[in-house]
Amino acid sequence: MFSIDLAEGAQLFPLEIRHAEELLAHMERGREHIGQYVGLPDVVADLDGARSYLATYAQKAATDTGRLYGIRVDGVLVGGVLFRTFDADGGTCEAGCWLEPSMTGRGLVTKACRTIIDWAFRERGMHRVEWHVDSANKKSIAAAERLGMTREGVMRENHFYRGRRRDTEIWSVLAHEWQAAPPA
Fold this sequence. Notes:
Elements: E1 4-7, E2 10-14, H1 20-34, H2 40-43, H3 47-62, E3 67-73, E4 76-87, E5 92-99, H4 108-122, E6 128-134, H5 138-146, E7 150-161, E8 164-174, H6 175-180
Parallel strand pairs: 5-6
Antiparallel strand pairs: 1-2, 2-3, 3-4, 4-5, 6-8, 7-8
Helix pairs in contact: 1-3
């Protein structure tokens, strides 16, 4: 297995089915914070849920339709980044992220996302990387901005989550924009 250093003591690595217990422990630590805007904690509610989620991404990786990576700090899983969708033929994918509250503000998500987005453009020849975010998730919106993405619009009340309708902002960066001025 490979890992990529993000910062002192922090690595990005592929999350696999064998990491199910580690993923569940991570969700237990960050469940409330992570679940404010994304349903991952609801899916990873127990060990079977963790295995099922990881198996879904193993299948996506095998069919080249998605990818899942973990972020470890000092050997402990604290977050992740992913390509929720990956359409190699169409040249479009959707990136996303999550992180435990104790790890925010360290630049880990930005560095991890830069790594996978750069791979998508340079190695896989993708044309467009999208970022879908709840309009209330200001930290994720700030990450999209740091990644050099452009806000394209808002899908109003398109998503029913935890008892209420939520807006989703769509952000993106195109290959030629990334190549011309990749984020520092």
